[in-house]
Amino acid sequence: VPELLFTQQGDVLLRTLRELRDDLRAAEEHGRNVEALAKKLQTTLSYDASDFFSFGFDIQKMRELLDRLVTWLDTEKPRLIAVMLENPSELRPGGGFVGSYLEVSLQRGNIENIRVVDTAKADKELSLQVVPPRPLQAIMSTWGAADANWFLNFPDSAEKFLSFLDASAFAHPEGRRFDAAVGVSGNAVADLLRITGPVEVPSFDLTLDADNLITALQAQIQKARARKRQNPKEVEQQFFEKLMQRLAALDTVKKQLLVTAVRKWAAQGEVRIYVRDTELQTALSSFQLTGEVFPLENGFYGDYLAVASANIGGQKTDLFVNTNVLLQSQIGEDGTVRDHLVIEKRHEGFRSRYWWHRATHKSYLKIYTPPGVKLEYFTGGVEKHLRGQDASRGEERQEDPLVAQIEQTTKDYLSYPALQSFMESGKNVFGFWMEVRRGKRKSATIDYTRKLLAPPRQGQEYQFVLERQPGSSAAYRIEISAPVGFTWKENNLPVFEYTAAADSPRRVILHLTLQRI
After folding, report:
1. What's the number of domains the chain is made of?
2. What is the Cα–Cα distance from 347 to 357, expressed in whole angstroms?
3. CA atoms within 13 A on the CB side of 202
4. DSSP H helical segments within 392-515, as ranges?
5. Do both 57 and 182 map to the same domain?
6. For residue 189, what are the domain limits?
7. pLDDT at 15 (0 to 100)
8. Whose CB among 82, 114, 364, 436 lies 3.0–4.6 Å from 310's, allowing a Cys bridge?
């Protein structure tokens, strides 16, 4: 399917999707007959049919996805898609700062047009002025699309991004609304270059490969800005045109590598999809393709952690900042979970010759935890006093409903003035600033507790959910200690350890079971 998209074979793409959908529908119908037999075998011969039922459910989910995808693609009206090019050297909670995006016009499965758009130009022609989230007010007075990737829950960030583009005369002067957004990290584009090989951009005497993609593009754009060029992003336009040509000419072996890369992007969250069509979005979500935050249902027995870093005024330093996260979690006999979280950042910008990598790293961190946690201790944050909005211009601006809803829940801590907490995506979030100078390292520590629904018992299932920020290279170490008198069935030890590197899945769910010693 990816190769048909890149080679302008829209009719073949739609026919292939329809045939696959029809095959799945036939399998689904046939499966209903087999399901009746499986149930009979289960009751008469104690046959475990759970694997079959799971497989049958997967068929149904895939068929529903293809149904909705074909309907969405097979229209006379072109679909307008914004591909958010997220900069991993300037992280934001939803992935990265979106300095540029691809405007893709898709008609009946064919890519009709691709153009690179400088997001700043779209933001200059916004028809509305929106008050930014409080931390972003440190560097701006009006919110726009470039900084819309503010929420870890990608559908929230993507809808905000599209809403700004819809309000921009520059983004689409004809007044059309965008149909979808796709978040793409710089790591995913680098993977494409590993498949195609280096791409030359002769007009700029530039050769881009997987290793120099981010730094070389940034250097070229900065040079164009210094020379006050009219279109400093022209290098990106020429690069993506060349890249699309290379992708359309892939041989059989490299086409398979592309399929493998797409699967990896989905697992690691390097590519996330948001569609304004509710039914298609729901179908995509069932395959974890939409970058949604894991919902903690009533009765959840376990723990949750996500660490999202927002580079605010820290230039392009994230590419040279190493982040290590340690969580030590102790479950008490009474069901109290005591978490000790340490976040360390080490700034190695001295390895780069560019000033935007060597600047002081400034970031606002959002630590997502289960609701109902109680803060016990905090150290390591930087206290900032933001001026807020100019009251004389307040009448021209409007509040964003989601941001206002979140900020209404803000809680301050008298003993820890550098820390706040608030509710976002159904999670308690601790928010604070960190600053790290070149060649230095800094750490922040948060201790917090939470009471589980019931005390631990023999055979109790316990879940730990870790979600990674897209585009982040942070390394994680998780240590979960069982209550006194218990071990974990999965390793027969009182402590279960898990480590996650940059290439780990976006979401990891540890299913653990307590057993008495």
Report:
1. 3
2. 9
3. 1
4. 401-407
5. no
6. 79-285
7. 86
8. 364
